[in-house]
Amino acid sequence: MKSIFSEAFLRHAEYHAAWGTEQLEALGRALPAGGEWTADLDQQVYRAAGRTVRVGLLGTFDVTGRSWLWAWANPGLRGTPVVAASERVAAFGKRNSVPELRDAAVDLSGFDDPRWAAEALAFVAMGVLSAPGYIGQSAGSDTRVYFAPDDPQITLAPLDPIAMPGFLMTGQSLFSRSARQVVRGYFAHHGVRAETATDGTRARLPDGSTVLVTFDALGRIAGVNAEVRAS
Length: 231
Prior knowledge:
The chain is α+β, with helices and mostly antiparallel strands. It folds into 2 domains: 7-149, no CATH class; 164-227, SHC Adaptor Protein (2-Layer Sandwich). The model has no long low-confidence stretch (mean pLDDT 93). It is globular, with a radius of gyration of 18 Å. Helices cover 34% and strands 26% of the residues. Helix 1 (7-30) crosses helix 4 (114-129), helix 1 (7-30) packs across helix 6 (179-189) and helix 5 (164-175) packs across helix 6 (179-189).
């Protein structure tokens, strides 16, 4: 996959990769994709699958123009409550010098798959906001619109030690750059302190057990080994 994202963007993308994968799976259970949907931007609500959820608007992807526009930069919406989430993403981008999150528009025409790139922008925005997922829907033949849930009905996924290895492995495959950054971000999102050890990254989980994530010579995750605390 050809990528022209900046190094700063990719570094943050890796940080959110495993946690974001986990959270999107949880969102899929709470709000299944597919079917008809509607949104009321004035009321900041999204309706689908028989549910009404409060959301913020992240941005839109122009399929024909192969470009992304952050919601805060939309002339018809600028300054309205529904774009507040995208404003926070922009503020993060400015503080951390991430042009894709800071600038009003992002040209995605250089990607082999611009749709994938648009999803990556929404994915990283979700991580920056620690939002419980993101929602992407087609709004006509040439536009996709992206929302971030902001509703107590949609909760953050708890850390599941059994499912954790799968999310870490999937997370490292999304951008395929720094598995250590993926692991650091996953534990940080869950509020788990992780320490770099000579044999890998070690963390104590909320249930009292510890986990050791080891890496191979190429820096990829080699194993995720849990050590259960003796009762």
